[in-house]
Write a structure and sequence with these properties.
Shape: globular
Helix content: 25-40%
Number of strands: 12
Number of helices: 9
Structural class: alpha/beta
Order of helices and strands: EHEHEEHEEHEHEHEEEHEHH
Number of domains: 2
Strand content: 15-25%
CATH class of the largest domain: Alpha Beta
Radius of gyration: 19 Å
CATH topology of the largest domain: Rossmann fold
Distance between the termini: 50 Å
Largest sheet: 6 strands, mixed
Strand order of the largest sheet: 2-1-3-5-6-4
Amino acid sequence: MTLQTTYRVGLIGAGIQLSKSPALHMHEGAAHGLDYTYELVDITARNLPESALPELVSELETRGFAGTNITHPFKQAVIPLLDELSDDARMLGAVNTVVFRDGKRIGHNTDWYGFYENFAQGLPDVRRSRALLAGAGGAGVAVAHALLKLNVERLDILDQDPARAQRLADDLNGRFGTGRAFAVSDAAQSLPVADGFVNATPVGMLAHPGIPIDPALLEARHWVADIVYVPLETELLATAKAKHCRVLPGGGMTVYQAVGAFRLFCGREPDAARMSRDFMQMYAVDNKG
């Protein structure tokens, strides 16, 4: 049997033109001797509404793609369009990778692993008694799962939709045990007594500038993590650094979720260290001068 060597994959999302995923995947594909192309399917660039998602998934499947990554705002909306879910995707209720195989659409979640690995390597020794998470959407559910796997004892969850924050807290308590997660209505309820803060909202992206919380709440004793990686140093992280907080940029999460997605798309074992180096080189080139 001849091993497949040509792969076409994509990314469906909004405002994704600056994504590093295409180069990250294609560089790794080339290192494996593959003809590997990665295409951005950006509803903003195509001037399409969010309701176009079913047609976009069908388009890529019809064009013979091996699969597609899924990002904001579709990580939960894509689920009804799929035939199967991996255990992680089903548990988290969010999908960031869809594999097209044998006529089926199979949803996976590599986001939680991406955040877990990035945190474990970037902030290995920080206090984890209590943390505040902003964002209970598709990325937030993965980050929340990772934080509790990283032994954060109590996780407070803040979201523009209080009911969504409460649902996530309930899910986490069902999975990890009562009293591990709580919905809060204001960052001021949590940060004065928390060890750290994680942003899992789009706030900080170039298309969504700003800081998701009142920066006056940040103190030097806090650690601060962001999942946004364009720009790599968000306004939140720059503010936190100026206050002498330890910070964790989102680039590592992007690398490690891509490691998981690459493995799913083509069945090869990616070199995570090489992908990390590639990411940092791409970022350095983009930010010269």
